[in-house]
Amino acid sequence: MLIAKKIIDLQNFLKNKRAHHSLGFVPTMGDLHEGHLSLVKRSKKENIFTAVSIFVNPKQFDCKEDFKKYKRNESKDIEKLRKENVDLVFLPSAQEIYPKGFQTSVEVGGLTKNLCGTFRPGHFKGVAAIVLKLFNLVQPDKAYFGLKDVQQVKVVEQMVKDLNLPIHVIPCPIVREQNGLALSSRNSRLSSEEYFRATKIFFSLRVCADLLKSRRNLSLKFVREYFRNHLELQGRDKVEYFEAVDPETLVFLKKLKPPILFAAAVWIGKTRLIDNVLVLKPHHVYGG
Ligand code: PAF
User: Fold this and answer.
1) Ligand 1, atom 9: closest residue by C-alpha
2) Is 168 a catalytic residue?
3) Can you give the three-state secondary structure of 209-236, one letter per residue?
4) What are the backbone angles phi and psi of residue 41, rounded to the nearest 5°?
5) Which of the following is catalytic: 20, 33, 36, 283?
């Protein structure tokens, strides 16, 4: 496994390996868990070469504190990727990615206006810029993203479509703990009591989806109140948003008629977690 810290090393590796071979790419911010590794495994299965990037991208953090708190676990990450037989890890410094004088931003329009876009100003601009830069550097055939960050997946897909990038974006299912909690690097910030409270996010999303089965003319107001009441039970946690959106366009739905994507962001204590469930038919619920 090659570890490239400089763009030039990455490019030399690619020059030698690329011709006629498919290259799968998994961009990450490190602190790797089974969710990331599921993307790596999928890429390994579908491509001759797999490259993973680890870069905690300062431009996508709307809050400096969150950027500082973001766990760095370089040596453990490298070990995990070695075990998966990844071919290349791109591990650039901030200076390598954003050299002095860097001025470009990338903005995807409508898709970034609601859900996380409303509460994290500038977040998706930061994501689009780094993903586009990484795509240009790595030039993968396929790129793998987890559906927990469903809005991010849609934004990347739209960017790829609008700019005619020759890359296949592959959305991959959410990986969950047995209790349903979606895997996230942020879960390690939870105390054991908070961890227990966090498991209610998926549970409550599922109940909302189940309510569609048992009640006719269910209103969004009712479902939203149900979700909020469950999560904010003891006043310690806060629902930032809970929405029912069109799974393709992420536009808010006026009526609860499947297909529906229920998407939520919840503060469990001081940790912000997101999750979603997809309802294709009233009795057909996916965990992502
Ligand atoms: O999902 C993430 O980890 C990040 O947003 C990404 C795609 C690696 C861009 O920094």
Assistant:
1) 127
2) no
3) HHHHHHCCCCCHHHHHHHHHHHHCCCCC
4) -60, -40
5) 36
Class of the 2-172 domain? alpha beta
For residue 27, the CA-to-ligand 1 centroid distance in Å is 6
Q: What stretches of 84-122 show up as alpha helix (H) in DSSP?
A: 94-97, 116-119
The distance of Cα 56 from the centroid of its chain, to the nearest Å, equals: 13
What are the angstrom distances between the C-alpha of 130 and each of 48, 58, 123, 148?
Answer: 24, 10, 11, 19
User: Could you tell me which of 118, 100, 132 has the C-alpha nearest to residue 62?
Assistant: 118
Instruction: Please give the helix or strand (H or E) that residue 62 lies within, else none.
Output: none
CA 153 to ligand 1 center in whole angstroms: 10
The domain limits of the chain are 2-172, 185-286
185-286 shares the fold of 2-172: no
pLDDT string in tens for the chain (288-residue length): 999 999 999 998 888 776 668 999 999 999 999 999 999 999 999 999 999 999 999 999 988 888 998 999 999 999 999 999 999 999 999 999 999 999 999 999 999 999 999 999 999 999 999 999 999 999 999 999 999 999 999 999 999 999 999 999 999 999 999 999 999 999 999 999 999 999 999 999 999 999 887 877 889 999 999 999 989 987 789 999 999 999 999 999 988 989 999 999 999 999 999 999 999 876 666 555
Residue nearest to atom 2 of ligand 1 (CA): 28
Q: CATH for 185-286?
A: 3.30.1300.10
End-to-end CA distance of the chain: 31
Give the per-residue pLDDT at 221.
92
Residue ranges lining ligand 1, Cβ < 6 Å: 27-29, 57, 60, 127, 130-131, 149, 152
Mutate to test the pocket of ligand 1, among 36, 56, 57 (most ligand atoms within 8 A of CB): 57
